[in-house]
Amino acid sequence: MSEQTKLNWQQVRWQCKAGDLGFETTDDIEPMDVIVGQENALEALQFAIECDAYGQNVYVRGLSGTGRMSMVSRILRDVKPAANNRKEHSYVANFDQPDRPRLISLPAGQGIKFKDMMEQLSSFIADDLQKSMESEQLLKARDKAQKAHQDKAEKLTKPFEKDLASAGFAMLNVNGPQGQQTIIAPVLDEQVIDPPTWQQKVQAGELDEARQKEIMDQQQAYSKKLEELGRKIAEINEAGSQAIKAIYESHVSSKIDQKLAQFGKQFSDEQVADFLVDVKGDVLDQYFYQNQKGYDPHERYAVNLLVHHEDHKETPVLVERVPSMQNLLGSIESKWGDNGPVMADHMSIVGGSLLRADGGFLVLDARDLLAEPGAWKTLIRTIKNELLEIVPAEMSWPFGQPALKPEPIPVSIRVILLGDSGVYYFLDNQDPDFPELFKVLADFDSVIERNKRGFANYAGIIAKIIKEDGLLPFDAAGVARLIEHGARVCSQGDKLTAKFSRVADLAREASYLAHKAGKKLAIGSDVKSAVMRTKKRAGLSSRKFQERLNDGTINLDTSGHTVGQINGLAVIHAGPIVYGFPSRITTTIGPGRAGVIDIEGMAGKSGSIHTKGFQILGGLLRHMLPLDHPLTFSASIAFEQSYGGIDGDSASGAEFCCLISALTNLPINQGFSMTGAIDQHGRVQAIGGVNEKIEGFFDTCHQRGLTGEQGVIIPQANAAELMLRDDVQLACKEGLFSIHAVSHITEAMEVLMGQPAGVLIDGVYAENTIMDKAMRMAKKYWKNTQAKV
Questions:
Q1: Which of 114, 239, 480, 658 could join 566 in a cystine, given CB atoms 3.0 to 4.6 angstroms apart?
Q2: How deeply is 618 buried, as exposed, middle or buried, from its count of CB atoms within 10 A (0-12, 13-18, 19+)?
Q3: Range from 177-191, 609-623, 742-756 that averages highest in pLDDT
Q4: How far apart are CA 369 and CA 328, in angstroms?
Q5: 168 band by pLDDT with thresholds 50, 70 and 90
Q6: Residues in the active site (predicted)?
Q7: For residue 258, what pLDDT band results from cuts at 50, 70 and 90?
């Protein structure tokens, strides 16, 4: 076993010394209200906020929990960008086209005045105007006009009636098929004879034929004069009605003009002036030319103020946490009558967050936005055209009723989109408008430097969390353990995680445990207990695995030496918690031409990355066995007792060592497990989850009894990331467990097989080395194959 690759116990866990933090408890620390380690993202975001150019919307890229939302909110609060020509948008009725409400956009603060003015005008029209039409002066003018027209009518009717009476006739009202009508009837013996009486006299022979003919001829002549007189009287009556209507219309027009003159002084906007002219025309139309049934000035002339700015100098900042199309765009509320749905009006229009953010900033989560049907299209269309159409073409009124088509609203919005890298690249590839509209990328790093500044930042953030959540204060040791956990979560050398949500959750649980124990202060042991509790809650799968190992259900050796068998390492995820566990890999070999067979791949259980790693294994084999003849053996490699899919290339190093063991018939020490990817030149490359993998194998060995000859082989590139548990570090210190960090696959073979691997010089390895035996066995397989041909 090579001692050169063995790490000492201090190297397997980085420790933060509480004495170096410079405080006793978090009460001594000022809570930090700044963003830690995100200077580049801060600069990009500040530029986007202060730059007014088109398309300078922001995509804030980074993992959740790194403080993106806090950073955006703080910058917008601190920078306080000036409000840019903020408007208050209103919809009013369109009297000519009721389905197309009119938009009136006024400077901030003017919209509410316009709304109040129209309410006063509506009250005047509904109450005062109606009362003024009953004034004594107006009634006198109406009576005078009526008498004048009656006099004209009498000048026509009196001569006719006098002439009619002298001829022995009179006008008589009778009921006919078309209702009551006036006819000319003869007067006999001072009695007006109606048609039935006339017929009786004719039948009784009281009138001879000559007298009958004379009376009927005179009757027809006067009937024609009566028709002519009727037409003239109708014209006089119509003229009289028009004159009276003109009196009232002039009165109403004058009253409205007086009122509008008072209101119009408050506004210089042409939109308001044009609308008031139309209102006057509509009032006259409703009073004198339309059926007034259902006419309510308060409804008809109401102003639907969609957005009102209390402080027109402050830039709006809106966070939309449910970015559905309706919440972004707004809606048109349904209206129902006695017989079902009826046409909505301008008062049914409701604005959404895109309108409320006009002149300011709208913060959205990219994944939430893309999950809402139509929301992304709505957002892009709005910021691209700088127009908000509250009812898009794809939305239609139910039951076949025509939909309102409000005028588009001009808007100016700066969108800040929060998302991860996957969503960013998806949008960049799929939507050609995205790079043109989101030109600013604010990248959040998931790590910060592991140095004194980083420690101070952590302490300040923890103090802030304590203050905001009302937690117990932490002593320096407790903060040190939280910092160590930040290093463990980060799993990068000389770095700490910037995902403070993970650290915050741990601090909350540690405070809970300390409070439950009656302490006034959370200490390091509370943090350790909190870490153990979080792992235990998600550790059922790991415990079940260990149980199956102990009862023999899963076969795994942690001692002894076996040819063609090695312990690989894998991980499972339970939310943010990761667990490692060992997996037995075996290899068999014999003469043939099939090459190296991946049983997982043949069974369809291999992921693409695992398949790639396996193919690299074949390339490395050719590189390390530079023979002058083909490799003519057949080998099969399998993960034993694996019934699910396998992916990742971290087992490719172990697979290669297992293959060499089978080829050379050299046994592998089963007390070791190995993780690490390889390249085609034999270099061992970094993998993920190194701490969890080591601890998973340690737990297995610990339950079976540590022998002092057990350990894990990891890539040298992962050595700086080690943050193993205290019990693992203690076992390393006491010599019961070891960690070997290797940079080349030959170093791993020497640890596993206890022999020199050999160095290739001029195509030859030193005699009796592992690779020399591999060369000789490969040649033997070739000869055996040749002999059979």
A1: 658
A2: middle
A3: 742-756
A4: 10
A5: confident
A6: 650, 693
A7: confident
Rg (the chain; Cα; Å): 48
Q: Each residue of 539-561: pLDDT tens digit?
A: 777 788 788 878 878 888 889 99
Task: Please name the residue that has the structure tokens 């960090």.
Answer: 741
- Give me the sign of the Cα torsion angle 38, 43, 48, 49: positive
- Residue 473: CB atoms within 10 Å: 21
What is the chain's mean pLDDT, rounded? 82
| Residue type at position 636 | S
Question: Whole-model pTM?
Answer: 0.70
pLDDT at 524 over 80: yes
577-595 pLDDT per residue, tens: 778 888 898 988 887 776 6
Tell me the sheet residues that pair with 522: 474
HSE-up of residue 20 (Cα within 13 Å, Cβ side):
11
Q: Among 538, 685, 699, 692, which Cα is nearest to 620's? A: 685
**How confident is the model at residue 340, as a pLDDT?**
58
CB 564 within 8 A of CB 586: yes
> Quick check: is 693 catalytic?
yes
Scanning the structure block, which residue is given the tokens 């830690």? 36
CA 70 to the chain's CA centroid? 17
Instruction: For the chain, give the percent of residues with pLDDT over 70.
Output: 83
* Euclidean distance between CA atoms 527 and 172, whole angstroms: 113
Q: Determine which one of 280, 464, 693, 773 is catalytic.
A: 693
DSSP state of 342: E
- Complete domains list, the chain, with CATH: 14-33+447-537 (1.10.8.60), 38-84+316-444 (3.40.50.300), 87-308 (no CATH), 543-788 (3.30.230.10)
Report the pLDDT averaged over residues 352-356.
91
> What average pLDDT does the segment 347-368 reach?
89
Q: Which residues of 335-344 are buried (b: 16+ CB within 10 A; e: fewer)?
A: eeeeeeeeeb
* Residue indicated by tokens 């103090």: 463
* pLDDT band with cut points at 50, 70 and 90 for residue 2: low
Give the CA count within 13 Å in the CB-facing half-sphere of 734: 10
With left for phi above 0 and alpha for psi between -120 and 50, is residue 189 left, alpha or beta?
left
For residues 583 and 119, what is the distance between their CA atoms, to the nearest angstrom?
A: 79
Q: Which of 122, 542, 583, 650 is catalytic?
A: 650
Determine whether 162 is an active site residue.
Answer: no
CA distances to 168, 503, 511, 640 from 23, in Å: 130, 19, 19, 53
Residue 188 tokens read as: 């006999």
